[in-house]
């Protein structure tokens, strides 16, 4: 059974259709790449899926359950967590406290939360920064913190919104390895990314959005060989 | 296994020193009335405790949860009026009356929360002011219940007895001193408990980034309302305490906007979202406002001998410095805020952090 089903989802902002009639499914354990030019509606789709706002039309099913109209905290409790394209560190709190907030989604005990948080902090290798205020971290570490914090909520489905944006090649490589590592742990992921090489490498399947519509879906090979995608999307870079 | 610091206990050396200091201060505070009998000094101490309770209450909602209410007079006044009305018109002693105040304030708080928590940032601030103003106007006009603009004067406080023996008859300031002290300590303990529990983490996450907190599984409505209720209940206690201690209330003294502003200032001056911020803020503001009110500054200038009391300037100072106390107070507050944006505590922390730079590079934050 699919862990996530997106059925004919549309989202309108006034007259603008940021998403229109988008449908696809995700199998358990896979990595789904979500690509498309700027303004294609990728982040909007994340927002609809995670309850930041309800979709204007269509239906979202997570583990067979209808998610429309659920608040973000409910969505997170049900096992679906997202990172933000524009990172949102809890600036005055330390790195450890940031990740503990995520862990407290699953426990009421600070002691347990602290252990759960430390585990994720080690995964993203921020051990040396635990007592550092999150607002003072450089961008690369902020992105890692964002990932550790959602991992601490113990998600089954993780939605990553451009976690490699603004990183240097070495940092990006680290994130790629992190994503593959998370996959090995059995967590399903949907990954928005602009770096084509990276997305082709990590994705099992890819969905391409363009002007809010689904332009194509398939394996990475199918996508690179798809003429519509090459003209509409890759053309932007290679024209 | 790697050790790491928790937010409350920075390191053992420091916390032992802090604990011993705190204990000594506590003992001194409990023994204070045995050695100091001056009613005026006791009065200042009681005002200091009151201010600590008020600031500490606001700190839970404003400092930790980031919901900048500028309408806390609503809870202060509701507590004051309930206790006073029950005591004066229904012969209910204040130690029962305060529970009535708490019950009413919880209802008021949930109502205010249902309106204001839909709003963010400046809109929340404005809504909180508006609701408190509505309360003030209501108290002005519900003459049958509140005696309107004339206010309520307490004729007598029933003596507090236990098993037939009179514990206190409230004829001196000493019982009020101890009640204030205990309530202030209670406020600090509650703040400590909040900071060191899941509540504190959820509150601070909401303060730092509401949307991020929401997406990490925090139910915003529930946690904001918990913060509001804790905050409102302690503000109500402060209001009840004030009413019984002063013995007179009217809308301008317990429900006016300047009380709400005063409450916020205690925290801003001391340090928002810290356990001892409201204590430090009260240590600064209570003596300052007393000194200005009682014209101590003009007296001090006369004492230096630079200006004689009888000279033209002296008369001017005597007449006007006292009247200008609100203005001078305001200017001083602005100066503190400009130069210490994180309050006095934040300023001290920054000074000590700069010294630590050479020790451990990782602890340097700015
Ligand atoms: N809250 C909003 N209100 C109005 N328009 C929005 C809002 N969020 C996104 N949009 C618009 O929707 C379109 C898709 O945006 P977005 O989902 O952020 O694209 P992407 O993440 O693919 O770059 C853009 O044209 C954007 O301006
Ligand atoms: Mg985006």
Briefly characterize the structure.
The complex is a heterodimer of chains A (239) and B (366). Helix content of chain A is 38%, strand content 26%.
Structure description:
The complex is a heterodimer of chains A (239) and B (366). With 239 residues, chain A is an alpha/beta fold. Helices cover 38% and strands 26% of the residues of chain A. Chain A has a six-stranded mixed sheet with strand order 6-7-8-3-9-10, sandwiched between helices. Chain A has a four-stranded antiparallel sheet with strand order 2-1-4-5, covered by helices on one side. In chain A, α3 crosses α4 (110-123). The mean pLDDT of chain A is 93. In chain B, β2 and β3 (165-168) form a beta hairpin. Chain B has a domain at 41-159 and 168-256. Chain B has helices at 12-35, 39-64, 73-90, 94-116, 121-141, 143-146, 174-195, 198-208, 210-215, 220-246, 251-254, 257-270, 277-293, 296-304, 312-323, 325-339, 343-356; strands at residues 152-153, 160-162, 165-168, 248-249. Chain B contains 17 helices and four strands. In chain B, the strands form two sheets. Chain B has a two-stranded antiparallel sheet. By secondary structure, chain B is mostly helical. The complex binds adenosine-5'-diphosphate (ADP) and magnesium ion. Magnesium ion is lined by residues 42-43, 85 of chain A.
Count of DSSP H/I helices of chain B: 17
Structural shape of chain B: globular
Average residue pLDDT of chain B: 87
How many separate helices of chain A? 9
Helix-strand topology string of chain A: EEEHEEHEHHHEHEHEEHH
Cα gyration radius of chain A (Å): 18 Å
Task: Specify the structural class of chain A.
Answer: alpha/beta
Instruction: Please report the total strand number of chain A as a whole number.
Output: 10
Oligomer: heterodimer
């Amino acid at each position: 059974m699919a862990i996530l089903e997106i059925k004919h989802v549309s989202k309108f902002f006034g007259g603008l259709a940021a998403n229109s009639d988008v449908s696809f499914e995700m199998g358990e354990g896979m990595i789904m790449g979500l690509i498309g030019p700027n303004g294609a509606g990728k982040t909007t789709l994340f927002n609809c899926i995670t309850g930041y706002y309800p979709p204007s039309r269509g239906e979202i099913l997570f583990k067979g359950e209808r998610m429309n109209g659920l608040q973000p905290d409910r969505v997170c409790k049900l096992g679906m967590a997202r990172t933000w394209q524009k990172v949102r560190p809890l600036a005055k709190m330390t790195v450890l406290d940031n990740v503990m907030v995520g862990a407290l989604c699953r426990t009421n005990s600070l002691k347990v939360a602290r252990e759960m948080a430390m585990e994720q902090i080690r995964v993203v290798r921020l051990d040396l920064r635990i007592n550092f205020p999150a607002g003072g971290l450089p961008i690369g570490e902020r992105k890692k913190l964002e990932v550790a914090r959602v991992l601490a909520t113990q998600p089954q489905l993780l939605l990553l919104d451009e976690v490699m944006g603004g990183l240097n090649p070495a940092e990006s490589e680290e994130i790629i390895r992190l994503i593959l590592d998370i996959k090995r742990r059995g967590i399903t992921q949907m990954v928005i990314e602009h770096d084509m090489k990276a997305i082709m490498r990590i994705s099992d399947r890819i969905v391409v959005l363009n002007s809010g519509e689904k332009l194509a879906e398939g394996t990475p090979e199918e996508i690179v060989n798809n003429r519509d995608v090459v003209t509409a999307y890759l053309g932007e870079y290679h024209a | 296994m790697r050790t790491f610091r928790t937010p409350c206990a920075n390191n053992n050396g420091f916390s032992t020193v802090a604990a011993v200091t705190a204990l000594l201060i506590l003992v001194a505070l409990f023994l204070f009335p045995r050695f100091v009998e001056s009613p005026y000094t006791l009065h200042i101490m009681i005002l200091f405790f009151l201010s600590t309770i008020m600031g500490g209450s606001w700190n839970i909602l404003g400092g930790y949860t980031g919901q900048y209410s500028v309408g806390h007079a609503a809870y202060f006044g509701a507590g004051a009026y309930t206790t006073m009305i029950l005591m004066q018109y229904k012969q209910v002693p204040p130690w029962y009356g305060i529970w009535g105040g708490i019950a009413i304030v919880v209802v008021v708080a949930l109502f205010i929360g249902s309106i204001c928590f839909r709003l963010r940032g400046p809109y929340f601030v404005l809504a909180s002011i508006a609701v408190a103003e509505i309360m003030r106007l209501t108290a002005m006009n519900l003459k049958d219940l509140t005696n309107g603009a004339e206010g309520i004067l307490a004729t007598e406080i029933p003596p507090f007895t236990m098993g037939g023996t009179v514990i206190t008859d409230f004829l001196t300031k000493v019982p009020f001193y101890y009640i204030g002290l205990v309530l202030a300590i209670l406020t600090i303990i509650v703040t400590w408990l909040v900071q060191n529990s899941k509540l504190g983490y959820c509150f601070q996450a909401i303060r730092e980034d509401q949307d991020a907190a929401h997406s990490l599984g925090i139910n915003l409505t529930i946690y904001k309302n918990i913060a509001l209720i804790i905050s409102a209940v302690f503000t109500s206690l402060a209001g009840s305490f004030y009413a019984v201690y002063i013995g007179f209330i009217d809308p301008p003294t317990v429900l006016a906007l300047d009380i709400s502003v005063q409450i916020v200032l205690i925290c801003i001056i001391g340090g928002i979202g810290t356990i001892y911020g409201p204590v430090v803020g009260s240590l600064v503001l209570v003596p300052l406002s007393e000194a200005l009110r009682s014209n101590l500054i003009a007296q001090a200038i006369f004492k230096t001998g630079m200006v004689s009391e009888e000279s033209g300037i002296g008369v001017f100072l005597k007449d006007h410095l006292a009247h200008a106390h609100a203005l001078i107070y305001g200017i001083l507050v602005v100066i503190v805020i400009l130069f210490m944006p994180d309050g006095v505590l934040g300023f001290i922390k920054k000074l000590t952090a700069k010294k630590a730079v050479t020790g451990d590079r990782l602890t340097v934050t700015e």
